[in-house]
Amino acid sequence: MPSGRLHLDMKRESKSYIDSLYAVLTAAGLFEGPKYRLSGLTGMAFKFTVHERLLPLSVSAYGEWINEHKPGMDNLGIYTVLDAGRTRHPTFRHYQQDAIKWVKDSIDKGIGIIYWIPEFGVIDGYDEEDRVFFVKDGWSEEPHIVLYDNLGLNFTEFWYCQAVGGKVDIPRELMILESLRLAIYDWDTPYKTLPNTDIASGKLAYDFLIQALQQGGYDEGGAVYILDSYCYSREEIYSYLQEARGLWPEIDEASRLYEQLNGLLPMIRNAMIRTNDSRHVDHSQADALMGYIAAAKQLEDQAVNEFRQISSRYPDPRRSIVPRWGIHTPK
Amino acid sequence: MSNMHRIGWFDQQVRAGQYPNSSLLAKHFEISKRQAARDIEYMEMSLRAPLKYVAKHRGYCYEDEAFVLPHLYLSEEEQKILKYLALRYRNYNYDNAESVKRVADLLSRFEAADNFDGIKLPIFDASPRAIQVMELLSEAITGQKSVHLLYKDEEGERQLHVRPIRFVSRYHADYVAVYSEVDVRPVLLRLDGILQLSIADAAFECEGREAFNHVEQGSKPARAPYLAKIRLSSPLGGNSWRGFTIQAREELVCTVAFYDTDSFLQHLLVAEWEELIAPSWLKHKLHSKCKQIEQRLNETR
C-alpha cells in the first residue's frame, strides 16, 4: 500500500496561513528567506481584522480566503490550486473525494498541502492502508490524524485545501510594489466578510479594538490572541520594509514610521498579564493600552499614505482595468 | 399541575429551615404575590400541608415534620395524551429518530398499564389525514410493504404504486422517499399531497435500486469514526467494549469505533486486550505514549 511522509517543519509564529505556507514552500524549494519576507510579499502581514467582541476567530477571519490568499500567491509567482467551501453544500462530498486524490498526488511529488484544521496547518503525509492523512498544526510534533472520509470536516463550517506547483520569477521591485497595493486595499476596506459587519478590517479594525476595550465584555482570550498576532505582524512589516529601503524614498519614511510603531509594541505587550495560567488584558492599564493603539493607528495611517504615493507613480493594470466579467471573481 | 414545581421548591425551603414566605416564592419564580399566596393556600388546603406561619422569622415551617408532599399523579386524560404522544414519538422516523425514540421511552413510563385500544384519542392541531397517512406509511416502511396512493401535485392527480423507504423533512415540509415501480432512483413525495393511501398485499422487488442517500439541507455531513482492529483475550457480550461501539467482530478480533483518540488511548492503557492489529498510526501513538511514561519512570527512579 502506498504511503508517504514528508515530515515538514511547521512552527506557529505568524498567522497560521503564513506558517503553513512557509513550511510547504521552503521544503519544496519554492521560497528562500525569512518568514517575514513571505508574510510581507503575500500581503498577509498587513491583514488586520478584529471582531467587535474580540473573538479569537478575528485573526483568521480576514476575508474570503480564496480572494485573500490568491493575490498573495500570484505576487509570489507560484502556481497554486485550491479548493474550499462550506461543508454543508450537497456537492461537498464530490469535491472532498477529488481533493483526497490531489492531496495524495501532491504528497507523492514531495509537496505538502495547506489545510484548514482549524486554524491553518499542513498535510504532510498519508497512509493508504489506514486511509488517513497526517496533519501538523505547528504547535505539537504529534500529527493530527484525519481519515480520508473526514477530510475537510471540522467544527467550523468551512473546508480549505491548497496545493502549490511551479514558479515563475517576478522582479523583486514589482513584488514589493504589489504587496504595498495589497496593504492599501486591506487598510481601506472596512469589512471583508460582507454582508456581516461584525468583523472590521484595516483602519476600522483599530476602532473596533479600541471600542471593545472601552466597553468591556469582550472575549479575554481573543483579545490576547489579537494583540499578540498584531504585535508579531507589525514586527514582520518593519523587518520587511527595512529590507526594501532604498527602492523609493517613501519606503524609507514608511519604514521609519513602522519603527516608531514598533516602539509602542513592548508597552502593548506589557498591558497583558498572566494570572492562573491564562493571559489577559490588565484592566488597570486599559486606558493606556487604548492610547498606544490609537497612536499606532495614526502611525500606520501615515505609512499607508506613503504607500499610496509610491503606488500612484506606477500604472496599476490589475486594479484599473475592469475585465468584461466585472471586478468580481466569476462564481 | 403547573404549580407543582413551585410547591416542590417551597417544600424544600421549609424543610431547610429557610422560613420561606409568599414574597420569596413570588420573587423566585417571578410570579405575582397573589399567585404565590394561592400556591401556599393550595398546599395548606388541598395538599393538607401542616404549614405554620412563624412571625418571628416572617415565614413558614412545618408543624409536623413527618409530612410529605403527595406524589405527583396524572389524571386519566393526561395519561391518554402521554400515551398518544409516546406512540407518535415512537413512530417518528425522521432524522435524529434515535433521540426522539428515547423521548418516547421516557413518555411511555408515564403511560397507564391498561390497554390502549378503545381509548378515544384527544384532538390535536394536526390534520388527522396526515397522521393517518404517516401511520400507514410507517407500517409499510417497517413491514417492507408497498402502497397504492392517490397523489396530487402541480402536475395533477395520479394513482401510484410505490414502496416507501423513509420519511424526510426538507424545506419545512414533510416528505416520504419512495421507489416507484419503474424508476431506479428513489423519488420524494410530499405527505400533504397524498390524498388516499392503502397498503398493498404484495410488495414489488427493489433489488438493485439506488440507495436513498439523503443529504440534509443546511447540515454538515457527519464525521466518520476512527476504527481500530483489536484482538481481545476473552469474548465480549453486547455491542460495546466498555462504551466503545463494536462495529464488527470475527471471533476474538473486534473492529472498535472511536471519535476521540486521547480517550481511546487511555482506554487501551487500562483495558484488557491481546493485540492491536490496526491502524498503524494508533500503534505508533500508543507506543510513544508508553515510551514517555517509561522515560518519566526512569527519571524519577
Number of domain units of chain B: 4
- Give the termini distance of chain B in whole angstroms: 66 Å
- SSE topology string of chain A: EHHEHEHEEEEEHEHHHEEHH
Helix residue percentage of chain B: 25-40%
Sum up the overall morphology of chain B in one term. flat
Please describe the biggest sheet of chain B, giving its number of strands, its sense, and whether it closes into a barrel. Answer: 5 strands, antiparallel
Radius of gyration of chain B: 30 Å
Structure report:
The complex is a heterodimer of chains A (331) and B (301). Chain A has helices at residues 16-28, 35-41, 65-76, 92-108, 172-188, 202-215, 220-244, 249-270, 286-312, 317-320, and strands at residues 3-5, 49-51, 78-86, 113-116, 120-127, 132-136, 144-147, 158-167, 199-201, 272-275, 278-281. By secondary structure, chain A is α+β, with helices and mostly antiparallel strands. Chain A has two domains: 3-32 and 78-167, Cathepsin B, Chain A (Alpha-Beta Complex); 172-318, no CATH class. In chain A, the strands form three sheets. In chain A, strands 1, 3, 4, 5, 6, 7 and 8 form a seven-stranded antiparallel beta sheet that branches. A two-stranded antiparallel sheet of chain A has the order 2-9. A two-stranded antiparallel ribbon of chain A has the order 10-11. In chain A, a hairpin with a 4-residue loop joins strand 5 (120-127) and strand 6. In chain A, helix 7 runs antiparallel to helix 8. Chain B has 301 residues and is an alpha+beta fold. Chain B folds into four domains: 4-62, Arc Repressor Mutant, subunit A, CATH 1.10.10.10; 74-125, no CATH class; 128-199, SH3 type barrels (Roll); 226-300, no CATH class. Chain B has a five-stranded antiparallel beta sheet, with helices on one face. Chain B has a five-stranded antiparallel beta sheet with strand order 9-10-11-8-12, covered by helices on one side. In chain B, helix 2 (22-29) packs across helix 3 (33-45) and helix 4 packs antiparallel against helix 5 (97-108). Chain B is flat and about 80 Å long. Chain B starts with a helix and ends with a helix. Mean pLDDT of chain B is 78; it is low at 113-125. Chain A binds chain B through residues 87-88, 90, 92-93, 127, 129-130, 132, 134, 142, 145, 147, 149-150, 153, 157, and chain B through 215, 217-221, 223-224, 226, 261, 278-281, 285, 288.
